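Worked example 3. Consider a protein that binds zinc ion.
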Amino acid sequence: MKGFAMKKIGEVGWVEKERPTLSARDALVRPTALSPCTSDVHTVWAGAIGDRKDMILGHEAIGIVEAVGPEVRDFKPGDRVVVPAITPDWDSLEAQAGYSMHSGGMLAGWKFSNFKDGVFAECFHVNDADGNMAHLPESISDAAGVMLCDMMPTGFHGVELADVQFGDKVLVIGIGPVGLMSIAGAALRGASEIYAVGSRPNCIKVAKEYGATHIINYKNGSIEEQVMELTKGKGVDRVIIAGGDVYTMSTAIKVLKPGGKIGNVNYLGEGDYVMIPRVEWGCGMAHKNIAAGLMPGGRLRMEKLIALIEAGRIDPEKLVTHRFQGFENVEKALLMMKDKPEDLIKPVVFM
Ligand code: NDP
Ligand code: ZN
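Given these inputs, the predicted complex is written out as structure tokens:
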């Protein structure tokens, strides 16, 4: 089968591989729509997970089940499914402890385009199919469906990590597709004011549509100063980090009220240390809590997010700004994700 791969750090290209083999609880899926992710860009061009040779990229795809192992109960060939980016081993001790994304070791629930070939292929392998796939209803479009794989669950995880409560003033740093979903999630959780940090006009427009009440352009001056001015020196109750670098945590600590919480879903591809300013962290005593994590996968989570879309509570298709017809365009879409043109939020390739 044909796949689009990372050939080595800094180089991508097409590869020809054997189709994946199937164990008893696994499934093979033929993608019908897929999307490159900022994480694919970090993987290839920042070498964020180390070197890989001819590893098929991608972890965001919906598709049609081609085959299932004999122990798969709830799926059959022909079913339309969404497969989350994180596909844990659900019988692992880590999953039993509530951290399925770390099943088999830290971050090891992230298998696609990390420990095994990803979804930018004519066919891809799903472990633990009953636990890691969800039926995608016909009412949900392909474009919206593919936003369920990673953007929606990750953005919402930022909201969960920051533990947003009714009435909270929430700062969302980074309004690419992940941060935009954090805005939508914070609004659903009852935030009063949502301050959104970004610069690209299309992201700003969609941020407002998802519930941002104030926009902060980090290119026009310090984020701290802008937040403090908007909050009359008080700061915010919660910060969600979905963009920036190792210094962004420092900003988050500075603008957070004592007792506030930070949820980080940003993937830090560079730098050795994350900066926490000692004094603004109350010399370690400010109850400014940091939670940071990889998004949870799993069928239950997919089904809940699907229910939100079906109920009309959120429309993730607003993230999709660029559409390509034909698998051969996956390279174009990935490069677009790398170069981030002004009007881009998320590209989708339809197969
Ligand atoms: P994007 O690159 O599309 O968005 C990044 C956002 O951060 C943009 O709004 C950008 O602004 C803003 N930004 C860039 N630099 C700064 C800065 N110095 N200070 C403040 N804001 C800044 O990324 P995605 O939305 O696709 O993904 C966000 C992060 O989430 C990535 O690191 C990605 O790898 C990670 N991720 C994590 C997952 C997890 O499970 N935890 C899963 C999936 C993704 P501008 O408008 O100027 O572009
Ligand atoms: Zn992704």
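Take a moment to read the result before moving on. The first helix runs from residue 38 to 45. The radius of gyration is 20 Å.
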